[in-house]
Write a structure and sequence with these properties.
Layout (H helix, E strand, L loop, with lengths): L9 E2 L5 E2 L1 H27 L2 H22 L5 H19 L5 H15 L5 H4 L7 H9 L6 H13 L3 H8 L3 H17 L12 H20 L3 E2 L5 H17 L4 H14 L25 H16 L6 H14 L8 H14 L3 H15 L1 H10 L11 H12 L3 H14 L1 E2 H15 L4
Organism: Longimicrobium terrae
Protein name: RNA polymerase sigma factor (Sigma-70 family)
Pfam families: DUF6596, Sigma70_r2, Sigma70_r4_2
Length: about 450
């Protein structure tokens, strides 16, 4: 007898043998890839970000009900869009009790939806008319506070859960949930237009947009939770948005700095994962697997940022740090002294506990593990890092290098207990086991 009925293969409408659990995993993967474009396309049609997300969720429910029987369609994004459009039209048609003005608005929206191009990818070809870019700027409108802009855009564009966003912010999940609900309500009540702002409005909204794009990239580069160490689709979305922004505001050094940083970081994606999906840390990576086209693009963007004058900003400085790795043919050739100096500059330009933690790593590599550990130890009392798994991970690495194996093992085990990424947890526990066999 099979305990889990979802694991029993059954034929779908095409005669293919599939299990319900297989289909649900496929739906989850499709949602991660398609949700941003789906919400963006719907927001362009209905001019309401909150309504667009509701319609997208309705389409997801329809997929969960139908796809286990019919199988995942060849073009799942188009299927979800068509389902969401039907839900929107049905909703407008049902609302016959509204006053004439609202009925006219419903008819106008219905006509707009009916005439919309169903192929999402085709609608994204024009860089200035990009629905995803419109969605970013809508969610980053000045009517919202900075934290609300970032949280809402990550939710809408990155397809991230509320918990994943909270992890990125190092704040409680209910706090993020409240921000998102309030932000959607504010956008609706303020009738914020779904559009790319005019040139004179760009500076006020650019910093928040850059932060959003980078956080999306980071979630793809090092997934907060789940079974995958990396989520390349998120990196690709962030890179694409960054390149579009660079074309829209070519005179902004920090835009080029962010693009440089993402290009260089993305060059390592193929080397960050081993044959079994296990994480491969930077210094252990096979650098022949790095994408040197992306590195060249990143170095060119960094040069562009520097050429605009005024010195490098926080993103440019991080790109310069990444370039130290990119220029080193082997891990041993990395210029850690220069990297430590760049982290010093970054700590002055954009001080934060996470920057200090990264600076501790650089100091440990440049001047010995004791120097790095001294700084890392100073960060243990900071509230925002209390449950941040990379702090005990860094301390464990530095303690191991100092021969303090028992302390290192405890730190790696603590880091493993804090991470929600299964691949990362396995890596940290493996490092803890190595400490058990280390010579006293």
């Amino acid at each position: 007898m099979v305990d889990d009925p979802t694991a029993v293969p059954r034929p779908d409408d095409h005669g293919r043998m599939v299990t319900a659990s297989d289909t649900h995993r496929a739906i989850d993967a499709v949602w991660r890839i398609e949700s941003a474009r789906l919400i963006a396309g719907l927001a362009r049609m209905v001019r309401d970000v909150g309504l667009a997300e509701d319609l997208a969720q309705d389409a997801l429910v329809a997929a969960l009900e139908r796809w286990p029987r019919t199988g995942v369609p060849d073009n799942p994004g188009a299927w979800l869009m068509a389902a969401a459009k039907r839900r929107a039209i049905d909703g407008f048609r049902r609302d016959r009790m509204l006053e004439r003005k609202h009925q006219e608005l419903g008819a106008e929206l219905e006509a707009r939806i009916e005439s919309a191009v169903p192929d999402l990818d085709a609608a994204l070809d024009d860089p200035v008319g990009d629905d995803l870019l419109r969605l970013v700027f809508t969610c980053c409108h000045p009517v919202l506070g900075t934290e609300a802009r970032v949280a809402l855009t990550l939710r809408m564009l990155g397809g991230l859960s509320t918990e994943e966003i909270a992890r990125a912010f190092l704040v409680p999940t209910p706090t993020i949930a409240q921000r998102i609900v309030r932000a959607k309500r504010t956008l609706t009540e303020s009738r914020v237009p779904f559009e790319v702002p005019l040139a004179n409005e760009l500076p006020a909204r650019l910093a928040s947009v850059l932060e959003v794009v980078y956080l999306i990239f980071n979630e793809g580069y090092s997934a907060t939770a789940g079974d995958d160490w990396v989520r390349p689709a998120l990196c690709e979305d962030a890179l694409r948005l960054g390149r579009i922004l660079a074309g829209l505001v070519p005179g902004e050094a920090e835009v080029h700095g962010l693009v440089a940083l993402m290009e260089i970081q993305a060059s390592r994606l193929g080397a960050r994962v081993g044959p079994g999906g296990e994480p491969v840390l930077l210094l252990d990576q096979d650098r022949r697997r790095w994408d040197y086209l992306l590195i060249r693009r990143g170095l060119a963007a960094l040069e562009k940022a520097a050429s605009l004058g005024g010195g490098l900003g926080p993103y440019g400085l991080q790109a310069a740090i990444a370039a130290c790795h990119a220029r080193a043919r082997t891990a041993a050739e990395t210029d850690w002294v220069r990297m430590a100096a760049l982290y010093d500059a970054l700590a002055r330009a954009a001080p934060s506990p996470v920057v200090e933690l990264n600076r501790a790593v650089a100091l440990g590599m440049a001047f010995g593990p004791a120097a790095g550990l001294a700084l890392a130890d100073q960060l243990t009392g900071i509230a925002s890092l209390r449950n941040y798994h990379l702090l005990p991970s860094v301390r464990g690495d530095l303690l191991a290098k100092l021969g303090r194996a028992d302390e290192a093992r405890a730190e790696f085990e603590r880091a493993a207990s804090l991470t929600r990424n299964e691949r990362e947890r396995a890596l940290l526990l493996a490092r803890a086991r190595e400490c058990e066999s280390a010579p006293a």
